[in-house]
Amino acid sequence: MGTYARLNRRLADGVFFLLLTIILLLAGWLSARWERVWDWTTSARNTLHPATLDLIATLDQPVQITLFMNRHQSQARWIESLLARYRAAGLRLVSRYVDPQIAPDQARAAGISQPGQALIAYGNRREVLNQLNESSLTAALARLSRRRKPWIVFLEGHGERRLEGAAPGDLSRFAQHLREQGYRLQTLDLLEQQQIPDNTDLLVLSMPFISLFPGEAEQLIEYVKAGGNLLWFMDPGPLNGLEPLADFLGIHPLPGILVDANVRRLNIEDPSIALIPADSDPHWTQGLGPVLLPGTRAYRPLADPRWEVETPLKTLENSWNETGPIQGVVRRDAEKGEEPGPLAVALFLHRPRDRGEQRLVLLGDGDFLSNASLSQGGNGTLGLRLVRWLTTPEGAEIAPRKAVEDRALQLTDTARIFLGIGALVVLPLLFASLGLLIRWRRRRIP
Fold this sequence. Notes:
The chain has 446 residues and is of the alpha/beta class. The chain folds into three domains: 50-144, Glutaredoxin (3-Layer(aba) Sandwich), CATH 3.40.30; 151-391, Rossmann fold (3-Layer(aba) Sandwich), CATH 3.40.50; 413-446. Helices cover 33% and strands 16% of the residues. The protein contains ten helices and 15 strands. It has helices at 2-33, 50-56, 74-88, 104-109, 134-145, 172-180, 214-225, 243-249, 379-391, 413-444; strands at 63-67, 93-97, 118-122, 125-129, 151-155, 184-188, 202-206, 230-233, 257-260, 273-276, 291-294, 308-310, 319-322, 346-352, 357-363. Helix 7 (214-225) runs parallel beside helix 8. The chain is globular. The model is unreliable at 394-407 (pLDDT under 50).
């Protein structure tokens, strides 16, 4: 009987190890064919930015990347993990390595001047990158995929936000992002140049500090009549000569400044900052952080039959257009024309024309793209999506911000307590119990 039990035990151990080996082989086979990744980093540095996913969806040709480095160095392993995320997102991407020390002729022919550079090819276009990361690669793909570089013209000369200014309210940081995307930028003073260039793909207006002359407003109206695309940052306050354009478009902003009690959830005490929640719209805010609009105005619905109108950017409830001073306790007063939210902070106008579709966006705030506010929440990403929609019919794509590396594992006090109890008490007790159970079972076998 003892010999028979020992044979059964050996047979059971053999079957166990055989099954364990089969399970491990199957797990390896499955992991080689289906990959599932969980990104637990605070900055989501192992997840592609929504802007990158937007761009990948628009690419209709394969991408070839030639990396001029030794494929066995540590940098190459990191790059391969980055490229794997692009492939998993649906990009047809082929990569190869060329060691510039072994093949210097190939490096010179590709315009490579130092090891570590990469040659990106899309269709018949090429670009060399000195450093390869998600931000630089996505920006390069955006430039290479654009068949024509659109011209964006910014109206200046009346105290508007300066395109190259470094002041908090200027737009130089946003302008740099546009250039990285391959857009060509130009400023326009209608007093010096009497006509808006015919090749303008998008005209950008911010509120003037000095009133425009009547002839200048008429030129803007003629530009819209001719089918030009327009992005107008209509900040609260007087229009200073832009009234004829607003009347022509039939725009009726609500009086006052929009206040929003919902910003308290973000620990923001200033109620004059309006909140557009993340993922509130499947196209414009999908995958973004909250959009914060400081000192914005809201709009009444536009019922002009010449335009198709959309209002995808709206505040939440518990917001309204405040017509009085914003200090102390602020409450909505319906008798003063203060309307409750949700309220539209932007109007999207579009209509067919001979060459595609004419598109206009009127925003109640331009501060959210200023140097001071561009990096807050999803502001910069939304701004670039707006420009993309206004200049091309395909959709929105942007070069993402560089990911911020995690410096430390941040745990709440409750998580620390559970982690400490698990490591110091639960796991030792579990292992001790398993050991006692195994010892007890072995003693019972004769």
